[in-house]
């Protein structure tokens, strides 16, 4: 055993000397540390002190399985990120479940809502990466029984923007007080930007003279 250790130290000394490192330098200290690690591996390997009387025994000793050194950790394949599939049937079902939780309405009630797109236009945003084009949608939704909502949506994908506006319109539905379930009370005036809107109560038979579909 002493002879084996002496041979190991002799080989390591010759190897470090052949590198031509400056004595006392940081590189020499790092190389000596690596040499200590190799020395511990040399002692831990049972093949260092074991001998065989046959060729088969030496082949067995040369096998890496005959060692007390811990094997390398197995390389695990990288797991691909999970994606929703983008606009599939499962994605639509997820949006429907979320909408049911937020509004408290059942699926059949949501499907019976009246939805109409009022405004569709292409918009361009100037960013540091250049001009990014997207589609803007303005949608109203109602149940024809006193609930009315309006929603906006914008996305680079037209279908996503349209779905956003519909979902927002349904979420924003508010009750509208109606007189005899057919018209509003009194007169209502509003102004948004340059648009002035005036709503007036109408007598029976005239409230839908120019409306092909009622949302409230």
TrEMBL record:
It is found in: Mitochondrion. This is Small ribosomal subunit protein uS5m. Gene3D superfamilies: 3.30.160.20. Residues 113-176 form the S5 DRBM domain. PROSITE patterns: S5_DSRBD. GO terms for cellular component: mitochondrial small ribosomal subunit. Belongs to the universal ribosomal protein uS5 family. Keywords: Mitochondrion, Ribonucleoprotein, Ribosomal protein. One of its GO terms (biological process) is translation. InterPro entries: Ribosomal_uS5, Ribosomal_uS5_N. PANTHER family: MITOCHONDRIAL RIBOSOMAL PROTEIN S5. It comes from Macrophomina phaseolina (strain MS6) (Charcoal rot fungus). One of its GO terms (molecular function) is structural constituent of ribosome.
